[in-house]
Amino acid sequence: MQLRLQELIFSSSNPEVSREISKMENKGIIRKIAPRIYTSNLEESAAKIIQRNIFQILGNLYPGAVLSHRSALEFKPTEDSQIFLTYSYSKKIELPGITLNFFKGEQPVEGDSKFVGELYVASQERAFLENLQSARKTGRLPKNLPVEELENKLEKIFLIKGENGLNDFRDNAREISVKTGMQSEFAKLDKIIGALLKTRPSNLLSSPIAKARALGEPYDEGRLKLFEKLFIHLKQDIFENIEDKNLSPESFRNFAFFEAYFSNYIEGTVFEIEEAKQIVDSQIPIKNRGEDSHDILGTYKLVSSKKEMSLIPANVDELFDILSYRHKVLLDARQSKKPGEFKDKNNRAGETHFVDFTMVRGTLKKGFEFYQALTDAFSRAAFIMFLISEVHPFLDGNGRIARVMMNAEFVHAGQSRIMIPTVYREDYLGALRKLTRSSDPSVYIKMLQRAQKFSSQLDAYDILILETQLERANAFKESDEAVLKF
Asked: What pTM was computed for the model?
């Protein structure tokens, strides 16, 4: 009988197969790397081969075993190379590169699923119950995940599936606890879920994220880590104070006109310059483009008011009030976008999913703590612009509001505002994407520094002269046609 030479070959009770394995081992075609395990891989270490094929090994050698405890939620060995399973006996087996921890218990029950070969994986509900079992402290990582991690996972179920989904999870866990004798573990799970659903005290919880959910202020943990990274980068640097030379009433308004024009262009609200001037001067929308015209007017109304643009939030309540007012002014003509109100459904841009609508207030509140710890105008401007852009708290108008919030920091400090001309649009959006997707703040910060340097060189005392300067800088061209010239 000729055996097919796969990487792993398992011993057999079939005498013919057993003889063939012995022949190949004697000829050096295969080698034994652990009890009942052979390999045709003669180069790599036994540990590497076993680690790579551990689930196949378990499915062949321990039929009916259930991947359980933390292994059922992590689907990989622990950092100290342990796997945890429920089986017909309790035993610890050391293999090269990995330790198998078997605990005597119920083998597959309804809800558990077949994984590889005859290896099963515990259902999510069963795994949570197992992770709430008492565990002895040893030098190795325990079989259970920390309670904080379990709470975070339950909070995520709540976020994705809602209250009904979490209640269904609890009902399934209750049934499984009876079948597996884990009623005391279910009592612990029931308390955690009750706290998340606000039917039990929030002080039963350990995780900050779960507590925030129970208190009605859930936040996006991943975004918070991103905000922290930007905060640290900003805090460790020193930024130039670039004074605004366009502070006279006329200069301020002229700069504001192009600031509003380009800010809308970025979002796809495109007008000819003369059309935009007509809208602002007459306060009358262009025929058949009422909503777009009002977007220009709303943005200009905000950024041309030195009084409004001097306001920055001193606390989170002021942040909410300022955001609400500015959004209401900006999108007053788009009632379907609920001007002044935070979003009530999720939004996205391409592959970027913004903060869940249930987490807007909590995420803004936690992010604002970083903002308050920044002191110089550039750092605060860069941070708050990204905070608003990344949370995307409204159904529409988020980019424009983010840029308004940024420039308000500069006006408050007497520094040059930032204009993002059309030709610089892709640099701007690319830097935001880089920070969002790669957690790289450096490109974003350099982009804003360059934009501020460019904007500070513009003379806005005469709108025609300013327009000429912008034309010479390629400001009105598309990014694939030219580059921004100083």
From this structure: 0.76
